[in-house]
Design a protein that fits this description.
The protein has 9 helices and 13 strands. By secondary structure, it is α+β, with helices and mostly antiparallel strands. The chain has 2 domains: 2-137, Aminopeptidase; 164-311, Gcn5-related N-acetyltransferase (GNAT) (Aminopeptidase, 3-Layer(aba) Sandwich). The protein has a 13-stranded mixed β-sheet with strand order 1-2-3-4-5-6-13-7-12-11-10-9-8, with helices on both faces. β3 and β4 form a beta hairpin. α3 crosses α4 and α5 packs across α7 (199-209). The longest helix is centred in the N-terminal third of the chain and has 19 residues, at 83-101. The chain starts with a strand and ends with a strand.
């Protein structure tokens, strides 16, 4: 649809990935596989073109083939353009593509950024420009998160002997434990869920939307107990479509403050490391200081941050 000298349209298919990648981001190498797996679709990958020059692009991602868009996770502007011009054309592309694909209330925005992104003026401007465009459409910052990575060869703490570990006994047990750990949670996404539903509903929804999708062995999922068998917490080591991950880790409220998070994280790391994974990824909110410090103690390095915005 031409607008003055600007054309906005989705890509026609994989044959236009080279054009789509004239603006770059960390996901570029994943697009082909994501298209094959149904996590992306050509009609969700939009471009703003001036002739054959790509001046803005965006793309949605979903968790599984046949599902609606879940997250807007690619949004790039030509940062060589004047500020007012690039913000305006970014907003026009976002509004046009959103109207064709999905209402903004159905999605979240995610952007991976360098750990010290505020210290570099060019990087900071790029991040803030994209956030400013989304704010024009009603999006607001939900949370900034730490993205963490454990590398093979990093020492894993030996078990303290204070806890016993056994495989999680199915959905019912895990949902019950997840419900309990939501009490006092510092996680912004969980807090947002709790503003709309009960803890039990939030835990069940997260299990069904996230945990149930992991194809890695369920026997990796571990419940931690006292020597007498009382539950203390749990850790969910898993593989998603891209990496080995610590998907979820939690300590029951009555057992917090005793250092059990270190034993849980070490156990989850040990399980994944035993399968010769090239890396283990994890994330936590910047504001979740206890969890961030636990990852640091376990040898996880903050290699990126993530911005999450939502539409209310």
């Amino acid at each position: 649809m031409p607008q003055n000298d600007l054309t906005m349209r989705p890509i026609t298919g994989r044959e236009e990935l080279d054009l789509f990648c004239r603006l770059s981001y960390v996901f570029d190498h994943e697009f082909a596989d994501d298209l094959d797996a149904g996590r992306r679709r050509p009609e969700w990958m939009w471009m703003a073109l001036r002739g054959d020059r790509l001046v803005a692009r965006l793309a949605w991602w979903t968790k599984g083939e046949g599902e609606p868009p879940f997250m807007l996770d690619v949004f790039d502007l030509d940062d060589t353009l004047p500020e007012s011009e690039r913000l305006d054309l970014g907003a026009r592309l976002l509004e046009t593509a959103t109207a064709a694909v999905t209402p903004p209330s159905a999605t979240e925005y995610s952007r991976f950024i360098p750990p010290a992104w505020r210290d570099d003026e060019t990087t900071r401007r790029a991040v803030e420009d994209r956030m400013a465009v989304l704010e024009r459409t009603g999006a607001r910052l939900l949370v900034e998160r730490l993205r963490l990575e454990w590398q093979p060869g990093t020492p894993i703490p030996e078990p303290s002997g204070r806890l016993r570990f056994r495989p999680v006994r199915g959905r019912e047990e895990l949902v019950e434990l997840m419900t309990l750990v939501l009490d006092g949670t510092l996680d912004a996404h969980s807090q947002a869920d709790l503003a709309q539903m009960t803890p039990a509903q939030a835990a069940a929804a997260q299990y069904d939307d996230e945990m149930a999708r992991y194809k890695s062995p369920r026997e990796w999922w571990q419940t931690a107990t006292t020597p007498d068998g009382d539950p203390v917490g749990f850790v969910i080591p898993a593989r998603n479509s891209y990496n080995a991950i610590i998907a979820y880790i939690g300590v029951l409220p009555e057992h917090r403050g005793n250092g059990h998070i270190d034993d849980l994280l070490a156990e989850g790391t040990r399980i994944l490391a035993a399968h010769d994974v090239p890396r283990i990824r994890a994330s936590t909110d910047v504001g979740n200081i206890p969890m961030a410090r636990a990852f640091e103690r376990a040898g996880y390095v903050n290699f990126e941050r993530e911005i999450n915005m939502t539409w209310s």
